[in-house]
# Entry
Amino acid sequence: MSRHDGRRSSPAIAAVGGGHGLAATLRAVRTFTDRVTAVVSVADDGGSSGRLRELFQVLAPGDLRKCLVALAEPGSLLAKAFTLRYAEEELAGHTLGNLVITAMMDVAGDPVAGLDEVCRLLGIKGRVLPATSEPVVLKAEAEAGPVAGQVAVMGTADIRRVSLVPAEPSVPPAVEAALAGADLVVVGPGSLFTSVLAAAAVPALRSAIAASPARTVYVCNLHPQDPETRGFDVAAHVAALLAHGIEPDVVLCDPGGLDVGSPAVSTICRPLARPNGLAHDPALLAEALEDLLD
# Structure
């Protein structure tokens, strides 16, 4: 049960990012509120997601699936089935969740309506929304030259800036409403350029984060990702966010993770990692985020 009462007993949380990192935040916040909206990058162009978006011209479903599963009730058989990855013939590489999400978005004729239906199917009380209403391609400017496509960007070092094609994709009105009504906006953790900034650097979304009356917190990664953020400390992560127009009010980091450096933003270091140090612990992260609501 939440430590907060009244309105704060069920605070509204908007969480922005993608992949496993955003899923970690969702597993944390769902322990103290059911008013959570995940705003998810749909720039993935690899694996099952890449094949489905190319075949059906839909939003990449993979990161959406991870977030839906994270918000589902622990032990849900249906959520577990969503993670089932086939190995046979035409279905090889696809997960059941990716196929269901693709079908729902197609049948609904609108990605938000389709995802809301999947939330109902899984018994999720929050929402999972795409960061953009249309498919996008992630581009990076790197020391070695321009790179296009999320998979290619993931394998690139010395990235200076990322952007999207189209440059100013539309954002679902529900995303802007969630950010405007949030009590806390959480950015990250996750791959800095290919998940966090692939979502947060969308111009309209970036403006909505800046306009939100809520405090914005950036949850930093525990380790660098080679080669994407090779050699980065916490301060370098923050500098990249600022360079892309994302200005967090506070940064959360684990003292046993990355070197902190000298971030240009107020920074709180406290234990956030699981005992193996490889991922964020939902209970510890939940406690840290709840403290920021006081």
The radius of gyration is 18 Å.
